[in-house]
Give the backbone structure.
Amino acid sequence: MPRPLDGPRLPAKSGTARKLVVFLHGYGADGNDLIDLGRSWAGLLPDAAFASPHAPEPCGMGPMGRQWWALTFRDPSERWRGCVQAAPDLDAFLDQELARHALPPERLALVGFSQGAMMALHVGLRRKPAPAAIIGYSGHLVGPEHLAAEATGRPPVLLVHGDRDEVIPVDALFEAMDGLGQAEIPCQWHLSAGLGHGIDQEGLRHGGLFLAQSFGIRPPAR
C-alpha cells in the first residue's frame, strides 16, 4: 500500500484550477520549503493550483526534515532503490490531487529540487499519460540505463543547475542530458553562474516561463 502523503497547498489565483503544479522538496527539508515558489509563478500561471507534499520518511540525518529515501552515500544503487520504493507513494498523491481538482493527468507539472528532482524525473517520465512538464533543479537522473525501456512518454524537461553546486556537482546536469537524449526525451537546460546548491532568481524565471510554455500559456508582454 502506498504511504499517504500530505503537505501545503496554494489555490489557483483565478479561483478555478485548470492546471496542477506539484513541488518535490529535497533531502532534509519538507513541503514548506518549496510551496512559496507557487506564489512567484501565480502571475504566469493564474489558473494553476500548487501542492508540495512532505516526503514519506523522517530524515535520518535531521529530526525536523523529511526524505524520499535514506542516504548513506556508500551504496551506489541506493538512489535507484529509493526512487523505486517511493514512486508508488508519489503516484498515489498525484492521482489524489488531480482528482481533487477534477483535472486530467496531462494538466500536471512536476517541479523537484535535489532529491525531489530525482523523484520528479523518475516518476514523471513513467506516468501515463505523461505530465505537461518536468523541471529538475540541482538534481540527477537516476538509473538512465532503465529509461528507454520504462519511459511511457516524452514530456518536455527543463534541468537547472548551479555551476558551483557543492552537493550534486554540475556534471550531473550533463549526465542527465545525455541519459534523456539516449531515451529520445526532449530537454532544455540552464546553468546558473556562481550558484551553489539552490535556486536563484534566474532559474526561477526560466522555470516559470518553461511551465507557461509547456501549458500553452503566452507570457504577458513586458
Remarks:
- The longest strand covers residues 19-24.
- The first helix runs from residue 36 to 41.
- Residues 9-214 form a domain with the Rossmann fold fold (CATH 3.40.50.1820).
